Amino acid sequence: MNRVPRRALPALLLPSFGTAAGARAQAVRDLTIVSWGGAYQEAQREVFFRPFQQRAGVRLLEETWDGGLGALRTRLAAGVASWDVVVVEGDELALGCEEGLFERLDPAAFGGTDRFVPGAVQPCGLGAATYAFTLSFDRAAMPGAPVGWGDFFDLSRFPGRRAMRRSAKSTLEIALMGDGVPPAAVYGELATGAGTDRAFRRLESIRDWLAWWERGSAPQRQLAAGEVVMAVAYSGRVAVANRDAGRDFGTVWRGAIRAMDYWALARQSPNRDRALEFLRFAADPAVQAALPPRIPYAVTARAALEALPADLRATLPDAPERAAEGLGMDDAFWARHGDRLSRRFEAWLAR
Predict the structure, then answer these.
(1) Helix or strand or coil: residue 306?
(2) How far is CA 9 from the centre of its chain?
(3) Of 89, 167, 171, nearest to 131 (Cα)?
(4) DSSP letter assigned to residue 29
(5) pLDDT category of residue 74 using cuts at 50, 70 and 90
(6) Handedness of CA 283, 287, 290, 291 (dihedral sign)
(7) Which residue in 32, 55, 126, 138 has a CA-CA distance of 20 to 30 Å to 191?
(8) Are 317 and 79 within 8 A, CB to CB?
(9) What residues contact 246, with CB distance under 8 A and at least 6 apart?
């Protein structure tokens, strides 16, 4: 897991940096929230972190991580309780809840399940945003535009290196769709031995042309530097790079993998009450509605989505037209099969 120094947001909203040891040394340490970094966390900072700090009159520390329950297990086993709220993927939330890594939440504290989109309220988590893994490419560097995952695996028409997330999750789904499996049939296929073999054969066909990334900011950098001609990338980060850095990256929505991440409250947090106060703040539709204009991810409060302008709403990963041609990440599938598939994926990479 890669980590960066904690980012402290003091009362005057001027960033300062402290150490983990310093935070633990405080009688009651500052509320610490952990997210994915990059353009997404920058948007979260302006929409959630700074406004909450201002309203509550408290300091707030930020950290980033790359995910993985192993990191959380290790921290808790060592008695390290320096994280309070952690943004996690759906399968990690389910497994962590089962293992007691996260606190169980009362939906009534956030206005009840009906206030949110389906799947947003879980026993140990509250939906933060819906994003998508998409095929991204640099229009200026590519003479023809890819139209789907089949093109990602077509080295004759689109020569050059490709970038993919270093994870079985999302990669194996893409491999199957790139081999002609319709989105609706992907998880049924991947659950079988023959389907898993098929996914790895497809990856093997471009093995020598693959570059792997772990940080969500990497695909945009790789594309901009000409290191790759296509990349699996987070949809919102690509849009921010086009808007703020003047890039001309294209996004292919056919076969995009739509997923939700969650706010989760770490077990043993000494800031439990303050963390719950933050989660109630983050659940407020009026607060959530400020996120999509900064990074085009869908928020989870129904009223927040309804308040968005129609043209902005149409750009989000869960917009009906985009959802219809894509694939919804099956968190339950990955909670059941993730260990097996991840072990095989890592063994394949090591060959």
Answers:
(1) helix
(2) 23
(3) 89
(4) P
(5) confident
(6) negative
(7) 126
(8) no
(9) none
